[in-house]
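Q: For a teaching handout, I want to show students what a protein-ligand complex looks like in token form. Below are the inputs, and the small molecule is uridine-diphosphate-N-acetylglucosamine. Please produce the holo structure.
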Amino acid sequence: MALSVLILAAGQGTRMRSRLPKVLQPLAGQPLLAHVIATATSLDAADICVVYGHGGDTVRERFDGLPLRWALQAEQHGTGHAVQQAMPETPDENQVLVLAGDVPLLTKQTLQSLIDGSAPGELSVLTVDMDDPTGYGRIIRNGDSVTSIVEQKDATEEQLEVREINTGVMLASAENMKRWLAELRNDNAQGEYYLTDIVALAVGEGIRVTGIKAQDPDEVMGINDKKQLAEAERAMQKKRVEELMEQGVGFADPARVDIRGTLTCGSDVFIDVNAVIEGDVHLGDNTVVESNNLIRDSKLGANNVVHSNCHIEGAVTGDACEIGPFARLRPGASLANKVKIGNFVEVKKSTIADGSKVNHLTYIGDTEIGTNVNVGAGTITCNYDGANKSKTIIGDDAFIGSGVQLIAPVTVGKGANVGAGTTLTKSAPDDQLTVGRARQVTIKGWKRPEKKT
Ligand code: UD1
Ligand code: CA
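A: Here is the structure, written as tokens, with uridine-diphosphate-N-acetylglucosamine included.
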């Protein structure tokens, strides 16, 4: 039977107290809804439909280009009403799997076990036992079968004691679903059309409702407020770090790292506390990331050391490079092997060849640096004239003294020395010393001015 997945994402998420629609709130750097869409996509579904409403087009635009069907729920009258919006275009013979846009940690395996465990014609509900079920709909059972779901706000004292809860995930044939939805009423505490009421309707028709329990309560957490969002973040980070540790990556403290993208590592990588990884990052064999580093969309080679407090984005390094402390590699920074970038050095859109060193307080932009070059402290490549960017080229074995300004476009020859304090406006030839600084004079008999009375 073909599978239609429906993702409910129209709610405002009042409890978030935010102008950003709930399903766009970030979890591990991605909107909540992105996680649910990714899981839905991993199933073998005929179509995936997202019910949207609050936040309107901002939600839709965020997922532009993905193969999704969108159903508008212009006014949000509850989860049952939301499912109804997507049903006209869902063929009767399909199975409908309902997911919530605010349950982002759900795995493909768990959904597959729900799909595999349900018989055609039945209604299946994914449930879980929670230590603290506050806020969730409670599962009311009669032996093996579920007889109803009662929302927190509608529950009696006795029902509130139930620890088995509704995860919001349900599976039924579209034909049954359409018939039940048409019968929903909103005479409840919230004045909404609850999807959960289809359980009692199915039971009333003599159709069996199966409750299939998920193993891990963390996985089916619903995110309604910032506290739950933070809890889900930690749960997701814990899972990611555990996977990496299984692959042999070392962490000083698995609770003090954030992976908001994809991290792949060679062998014996070690990551100290407070690393934030964003986008696609690769760390080569034996690379060490010291404390407080942000690394985004970068590929670092083997045996690198990233000292504390660096900001690295869109950079590529070879082997045995040393970066920081307090260095900034910007997009297009490309270091070959054994390159050293020291403290308070910024590198942008530049290539630095083997063995070169830029150790202190320097800006290197739009530059090509050869092998074994030494760039002295406080050197600036002046690449921008207010309108255009120009290139600086520094040949192999060049030595740039401290406090040099290289006014691009300019070339420093191979083996050239540029004296400290030089403002280089013309190319410096190979193997020569070029100095451009005012001659030093001492004025004899000069006296300090005295304060007038
Ligand atoms: C819902 C379930 C509850 C379950 C819990 C699991 C109902 C009535 N209650 O409660 O039994 O334990 O999820 O997390 O179904 N939405 C719409 N349109 C609407 C209302 C909601 O699209 O009109 C979407 C929301 O964007 C959200 C999802 O449906 O993604 C769930 O809605 P929410 O209001 O968070 O329901 P809960 O109170 O958490
Ligand atoms: Ca919810």
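A: Two things your students might notice: The first helix runs from residue 32 to 42. Helices lie at 32-42, 57-62, 79-86, 108-116, 157-160, 174-182, 198-204, 226-246.
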